[in-house]
Amino acid sequence: MQGGNFSSAAEFILIGFSTFPHLQLMFFLLFLLMYLFTLLGNLLIMATVWREHSLHTPMYLFLCALSISEILYTFAVIPRMLADLLSTDHSIALRACASQMFFSFTFGFTHSFLLTIMGYDRYVAICHPLRYNVLMSPRGCACLVAWSWAGGSVIGLVVTVAIFQLTFCGSNEIHHFVCHVQALLKLACGENVSILAMGLGLVCIAALLGCCLLILLSYAFIVATILKIPSAEGRHKAFSTCVSHLTVVIEHYGFASVIYLKPKGPQSLEIDTLMGITYTVLTPFLSPIIFSLRNKELKIAMKKTFLSKL
Length: 310
Fold this sequence. Notes:
Distance between the termini: 52 Å
Number of strands: 5
Order of helices and strands: EHHEHHHEEHEHHHHH
Shape: globular
CATH class: Mainly Alpha
Strand order of the largest sheet: 2-1-4
Number of domains: 1
Helix content: over 70%
Largest sheet: 3 strands, mixed
Radius of gyration: 21 Å
CATH architecture: Up-down Bundle
Mean pLDDT: 86
Number of helices: 11
Strand content: under 5%
């Protein structure tokens, strides 16, 4: 199907992988394995926390919520991407495109908010241990998780409604493998497109930077408190509870900054596609690995829960 000129879009064509015609089968197998590993890793984390009563703490409740958001985020994006890699028909209906954008933004920003809450949890645990049970009560933790999902849903709704109230004209080819905001804005026409693009960019960047600054603030207080611990063993034990979270934060915001803070200008389709893969496929793939390997309590619980039965 070829892209044509039209004023009211009924469908779009995703051409993100069209520049890699000889690599599509390899990409399919690689991304399928990474997707299955992502699902398996997050399900193992959730099952371990569920079965191991010693992990029924706020930190691991937030980790389970994070795993759920990752599973749903990848489910909103990767199955469609895998289907396109095997199909010659890359068209996507307008409603399907809007749904994909809404759910990817909802679960993506929920992930960011949950990482921020996990940073706050580590701050309270290390800086105010005597007040931890009060500040991180079950009801309080449930409210924090609910607000994270609500915040992600609001941003997803705002972005999706704003984009799909535009008029699309010209080619219906989306230069991406998902319904990406910037790629869709290039297809839109009208006087308010540039203003809308700037507004959406500010909303997304403000949300990401706000979360990032809160996490940095939490770790500034954490580092200051850890440095006051007299023994090296005590400092190591306190910081070890933060390593996995801090690693995932660096990975998450590192790849997110590549997407949202890249300089404006002409970009090749190949570069846009490869940059999108880092955040869409690679980040969810690495997160459960980092939490499983860098979190000592979780690693021991996984061995106890699953390997002891072999």
